[in-house]
Amino acid sequence: MKIALLQHACPPTQDPWSVTADMIRDAAGRGAELVVTQELFAGPYFPVVEDPASFALAEPIPGPTTRALSGLARELGVEISASLFERRAEGVYHNTSVLIDAAGELAGRYRKMHIPDDPGFYEKYYFTPGDLGFTTFVTRGGVAGPLICWDQWFPEAARLTAMRGAQVLLYPTAIGWLADESADEHRQQRDAWITVQRSHAITNGVYVAAVNRVGVEGRTTFWGSSFVCDPAGQVIAEAPVDEPCVLMADCDLDRISPQRQAWPFLRDRRIDAYDGLTRRLLDGDA
In this structure, what CATH number is given to the domain that contains residue 43? Predict the structure, then answer.
């Protein structure tokens, strides 16, 4: 599976859609089979504040953005995984990833399951938690597992998506540093972000592709660093911290089976002993 990750800024003076369209054409010209956008690619990352006016940015699926993506996919013969602000109904909104196949059809949908609520990331104000469960996108090149940003910190999400047959986990992302954080905090946070996703690759024997935005929006500096790692957790492609990039990566899916045979974590799972995972805390915990 040859994938392309689209990392870019979303300044208010620039049309993110035209930037994305140009990047999709670039990726297709370089042989990409599956193109993956960053989280909420169609504009600024509005959850930096709680603002009721931002609900006007949401749109139905299918809607204007998915129709535009469908036209590009059909024209270029590529598949596109895109992250959108979905208006499901008045008062019900989701952070949603879709798959547009090479014929321009809407072939899959995933609604973000884990919703953060932190300074500069006020997503609970906007997004209803996903209700479609963990799923996969079946593409021409292989099986992709759509997850979104905050999902990347939860091993359960990666495991359940891999168990559904995902060969590549996709993490469209909007993550960055706040203005009052130190350089040491910057290094620690970025390292943790990369490390936890590499661990998902290792423990599930899959590829992981994470695509983040760049640029400064409000008090947040997005740290880019989009990357792809293999089933052994080795980074095979990485984008800059602060520049736009069409990041290309060849994912040799034939490597998955030997990796899982050598490190048989799925074989050795004690499925008879994990019932406690469905509880918030175990008995006796404070």
Answer: 3.60.110.10
The question of whether 10 is a catalytic residue gets the answer no
Catalytic residue among 10, 33, 86, 112: 112
Catalytic residue selected from 33, 39, 123, 217 = 39
As for how many domains the chain has, the answer is 1
The helix or strand, by DSSP H or E, that contains position 160, with its residue range, turns out to be helix 155-163
Enter the tokens of residue 250: 């060849």
Question: What is the DSSP secondary structure assignment for residue 118, as one 8-state letter?
Answer: B
In a domain, 43, yes or no: yes
Tell me the whole-structure pTM to 2 decimals: 0.96
Question: Does 227 reside within a domain?
Answer: yes
Q: Residues 149, 229, 245, 251: which is the catalytic one?
A: 149
Q: Based on the residue annotation, tell me whether 2 is a catalytic residue of this protein.
A: no
Per-residue pLDDT of the chain (286 residues; tens, 9 = 90+): 999 999 999 987 778 888 999 999 999 999 999 999 999 999 999 999 999 999 999 999 999 999 999 999 999 999 999 999 999 999 999 999 999 999 999 999 999 999 999 999 999 999 999 999 999 999 999 999 999 999 999 999 999 999 999 999 999 999 999 989 999 999 999 999 999 999 999 999 999 999 999 999 989 999 999 999 999 999 999 999 999 999 999 999 999 999 999 999 999 999 999 999 999 898 765 5
In contact, 99 and 62? CB cutoff 8 Å: no
